[in-house]
Amino acid sequence: MRNLRSERTKKVEITNDDLIRYSTTQEILTGIEGFVLGYLGLTIIWVAIGLAYPIVFEIPNSLLLVVFPGSLMLAAIGRLRNRIVRRIADRGLSWIYWIQRIFSWLFWVGVLLAIYAILAVEHLIPEYSIPFSVLLAGSYFLVAAPRFLFGQLVPELREARLCMLQFLSDWNLGSPRFHTGHNWLRRSLGGVERQLATFGLSTSPGTLFLGSSYSLFEGMISAFELEALGDWLIRPADWTFVNWTIPFAISQAEEAERSGFGRVLGQLERLLDRPSRRAKVVLGTIISALTIIANLPSIIQAVQILAKLFGSK
């Protein structure tokens, strides 16, 4: 077999084809969505602050000064979504990989905040204070906003392919400081496992990673074969190379276990990435609706204050 370090692989480049890009119409709608999220979130937060410190309600145009600049900023972010994603991608795979996950984690943090606020407002759980519950309810719209505005940045399988290229690029640099483990390889092979499942060929989680890592350890697999495995993720009809590589990795996993090695599953990351994109959108919509309903009195109060402000002019 060829020595992995002797192979030369191309530098990882994230092209527009690797990104999920919105049409102009989608960006406009996303901008409107950003304005609505900002308006709801900041209005509810403004009411919460006013309930805690009533003097806020007496400050002229305080609602306008708080709500509209923030709402317009989120609207601009939504409208410029493609440009922002392109800038993130230009900084490298690590940036777009982790930012995508941070957006996802923020969404779930927002969900927890909203659930607490809803239960507290409805007196189903002990409530610290009404302003605090209302504040958390408004925070949901802002904390979850990045997930709603940006969605998925890179399709799952294309991301897995890029992870393979990143692993090979780091490995081939020849500097020990870049050899920080096989995390990129594990992430890529997780995508291979999901791709296999769509063809009715399931493997135990971590099997391919164990087999490939053991093959690297023994010097029995080449960069060309691993890169072909990554390319198969976006060209699934081309089985030319992978129909040997995948069974070989599985057999090597069995050999590794006989030698006393075990599997590394990366359970925390799997749990955080488990919910599907559609499930997140549906859950986010439900939570948003429930949060609006639970805080409807606060929203009505803010609208009445706005009406008085404009009516007095």
Q: List segments where confidence is low: pLDDT < 50 over at least 5 consecutive residues.
A: 1-10, 267-275
By secondary-structure content and strand pairing, the structural class works out as mainly alpha
Number of strands: 0
| Average pLDDT metric | 80
Number of helices: 15
Instruction: Give the helix proportion (percent range).
Output: over 70%
Shape descriptor: elongated
What proportion of the residues form beta strands (DSSP E)? Answer: under 5%
Major sheet size, sense and barrel closure: none
- Rounded to an integer in angstroms, the radius of gyration calculated over CA atoms is 25 Å
C-alpha end-to-end distance? 81 Å
| Overall tally of structural domains | 2
Helix and strand element order: HHHHHHHHHHHHHHH
